[in-house]
Write a structure and sequence with these properties.
Keywords: Coiled coil, mRNA processing, mRNA splicing, Nucleus. The chain is of the alpha+beta class and 632 residues long. It is built from 19 helices and eleven strands.
Length: 632
């Protein structure tokens, strides 16, 4: 028992301390229960927590109610104190007031009281008039009444004078005196709180028209008698009002100061400034006979066009037009003025001197150099002749190919059997299959069929694997396949390069331009495309097979007729592509396929001349000119 008592006495202070710590730390019920569970049982800790929080809530409620009562009691105490002070002040005065039955010798009569009240009312009215006059002259904020400074004024305005109060008290009307004192206290309280401190609102002065004063003669005059000229309102139209406003607006625009824009950094004097107001446009009358002259010009122009068409038709029939246009586009011959040599190179072999000097009417010749033999020049190998002889391959029929394969396989089998017979190679294992299992093995298959079947299937898998490995070894890699494809597309052009020249009337379609360029690059062909009005020239260089594929692209695969071309006379014609020339040259003259835009015919010819093939342009352009003359 003693031990239990001592243990309980030790637990109590720690429990109280833990509970206070939980409340000061602001723990909720769950945290407080967990904190106290370390000192008590769970159930006891929960009950103790509930009790602690209930007591804390009651304490908070009582504190709030006591505060409210304290606030409510304060004004009551103030009222009691004020009443006590009034009664204390009234008691000494009451000692001097005689009884109502015994009036004092200085008691006022009713007439005197009435006169005193009338005088007080007069004073109040005069004071109000003075205040109104002051408010009319100065702002109202100047006359805000402040609590302590104007206490005398307030008492004189809102209460009774102190002399009347003392006289009433001396006369013995104690009830009236108390009421007056209470009224004065209430008025003083309201003035101190600011309820009555605000001045009355200033009356709104309505603006009235000045009175009309007429003299004996009926003229309008002012108060001093001077004549006044009245402004007469004249009714006007809305159009006149708008015109007047417009004129005022223009004057305002003219009066505005215009900034000197030339000094700014971004000013451009070439750009004209638009005026803010649109200028009036006057009527412009045509001079008499103007349209007759226009009609005569149009008739004359139509007659000239008709005559020109007739002349062109006659010239086309006779062929003059084509010859004229071809002569215009023909390149000018370059006349080279070279120095004439003294001796030609073929004569220098037989001449004794370096000139054609004659002696005795004969030229000096080397007689031994002239014989009766004919000198033949050395025959040179043509550039297109192959270095090795090319033989025509022999094409076999299907039956012949089978027979040849059979013979080759027979020879290989015989060679293998000979090696086995000589012991150079081990004999191959029998080729077992499920179908020939019993025929090849016989009794062995009957003794252990499961083992034999597994052996056969293993052999079959081995043969299949060897076959797949052989195929994989023969299969080309991605790089090898790419090289093989490129090798098939590329051709040997050392012996000669095939060239094709195409003329397209219109080549502005992006899709068709892409096809022309991309196919040439894919076929590893070189060349160029010159873009000129009504004569677009496509030149491609490559092998024979490449030219065959590209020709099929240009003439068949691309649908040139889908595009419509407008001629100079505004007539629409379908687009087309023409093969101008194809042949063989010694070497390539162009690099990778590129496009060249040439605005003039001279630039186009210079581009081809730079590559030493100006004849391509002459041939293509002359064909375009002849085609244009035929269509006219």
């Amino acid at each position: 028992l003693l031990s239990n008592k001592s243990r309980s006495t030790n637990i109590e202070p720690s429990l109280v301390t833990a509970a206070l710590n939980c409340l000061t730390s602001g723990y909720d019920r769950r945290k407080t229960t967990n904190k106290l569970a370390s000192l008590l049982d769970d159930k006891k800790a929960a009950r103790l927590t509930e009790r602690i929080f209930d007591l804390a809530d009651e304490l908070k409620f009582t504190q709030r109610s006591s505060r409210k009562r304290h606030h409510d009691s304060e004004p009551r105490q103030d009222e009691k104190e004020s009443k006590k002070s009034k009664s204390k002040n009234a008691e000494p005065e009451g000692t001097t007031i005689p009884a109502p039955g015994n009036p004092s010798p200085g008691q006022l009569t009713t007439l005197q009281i009435k006169e005193m009240m009338a005088n007080a009312q007069k004073m109040i009215e005069e004071r109000k008039r003075a205040l109104n006059a002051l408010r009319a002259d100065d702002p109202p904020s100047r006359y805000m009444i402040r609590g302590d400074d104007n206490s005398g004024m307030r008492s004189s305005l809102y209460g009774f004078p102190s002399s009347q109060v003392t006289s009433l008290l001396q006369r013995g009307d104690t009830d009236k005196a108390r009421k007056i004192a209470q009224l004065q206290a209430q008025i003083q309280n309201k003035l101190s709180t600011g309820v009555l401190s605000l001045p009355p609102l200033r009356p709104v002065i309505q603006d009235k028209p000045t009175p009309l004063i007429l003299d004996d003669e009926g003229r309008t005059v002012d108060i001093t008698g001077k004549e006044v000229q009245l402004t007469h309102v004249v009714p006007t139209l809305k159009a006149n009002i708008r015109a007047k406003k417009r004129e005022e607006f223009r004057q305002q625009l003219q009066e505005k100061v215009v900034e000197d824009l030339s000094e700014t950094h971004f000013f451009d004097p070439r750009i004209g400034m638009k005026s803010a107001v649109r200028n009036k446009r006057a009527l412009r009358f045509h001079e008499p006979g103007k349209f007759q002259q226009l009609a005569d010009r149009m008739r004359m122009k139509a007659q000239l066009e008709k005559l020109q068409n007739e002349i062109s038709q006659i010239a086309r029939k006779t062929g003059i037009t084509s010859a004229t246009k071809l002569a215009l586009i023909a390149p000018k011959a370059e006349h080279r003025e070279e120095e004439i040599p003294d001796v030609e190179w073929w004569d220098s072999v037989i001449l004794t001197e370096e000139n054609y000097a004659m002696e005795n009417g004969k030229i000096n010749l080397k007689e031994p150099a002239i014989t009766n033999l004919v000198e033949h020049p050395i025959q040179m190998r043509p550039p297109t002749e192959p270095l090795k002889p090319v033989y025509m391959p022999v094409f076999l029929t299907k039956k012949e190919r089978k027979k040849l394969r059979r013979q080759n396989r027979r020879e290989a089998w015989k060679e293998e059997q000979e090696k086995i017979r000589l012991g150079l190679e081990p004999p191959p294992e029998p080729k077992l299959r499920i179908s020939n299992l019993m025929r090849v093995l016989g009794t062995e298959a009957v003794q252990d069929p499961t083992k034999i079947e597994a052996h056969v299937r293993e052999q079959m898998a081995k043969r299949q694997k060897a076959h797949e490995e052989a195929n994989a070894a023969r299969r080309l890699t991605a790089e090898q396949r790419r090289e093989k494809k490129v090798r098939k597309l590329k051709e040997d052009t050392t012996l000669g390069v095939s060239v094709s020249v195409y003329r397209v009337k219109e080549l502005s379609n992006a899709s068709k331009k892409y096809k022309v360029e991309t196919n040439a690059k894919q076929l590893f062909m070189t060349g160029c495309v010159v873009l000129f009005k009504d004569c677009n020239v496509v030149v491609v260089e490559g092998g024979v097979k490449q030219q065959k594929k590209y020709r099929r692209l240009m003439l068949n695969r691309i649908k040139w007729e889908e595009d419509v071309v407008k001629d100079s006379d505004a007539s629409e014609t379908p687009n087309k592509c023409v093969l101008v020339w194809e042949g063989t040259v010694k070497q390539r003259n162009f690099g990778e396929m590129k496009f060249k835009v040439c605005p003039t015919e001279k630039l186009a010819r210079e581009h081809f001349k730079k590559h030493c093939v100006e004849q391509y342009w002459d041939l293509a352009y002359s064909g375009a000119v002849l085609e244009a003359t035929d269509d006219m």
